[in-house]
Amino acid sequence: MKRSFLVAVLAALAVVAVAPAATAAPADDTQVGLEGRGVLSAGGAGHVEVSGAGRVRLTLAGDVTIVDHAGDARIWVRGVPAAAATALTLEDFRGVVRVVGSDFTVEADGRIVLRAAGTGSALLAGHGWFWVRHCGPGGWSDAGVPVAYPA
Fold this sequence. Notes:
The protein has one helix spanning 2-17; strands at residues 23-26, 32-35, 38-68, 74-77, 80-81, 87-132, 136-139, 145-148. The chain is mainly β. The chain has one domain. Strands 3, 4, 5, 6, 7 and 8 form a 6-stranded antiparallel β-sheet that branches. Strands 1-2 form a two-stranded antiparallel sheet. The chain is globular.
């Protein structure tokens, strides 16, 4: 379990290292604003909420709920397209979930590594790290850390 989590974290960092550039300026200690294409990477244990437009990739050991507010989201579970639905919940899930759409919310509890690109915001509660290109790293808190990545 620990080894696979470490491999997932390293893989996420490798993907982010080659992500397109974006310009950014920290708004304060808990929120980061981006201009251009926003990219957020995070990993840890706890609760994550991501809302926005674009794409999200989660490597997860835990529970996840995806709500498609616009009705156009495409969802893949372990690489297989999921049936069209406006909401999907997976309990005690281990694997990768991907979402692409214009208005969706993803909530997850457990051990999580995520990468989000597009326009949106995330709430990270628990223990872990986050990284926004050109803004650097930050840490989660038990109270929750809000992070914005607008395009």
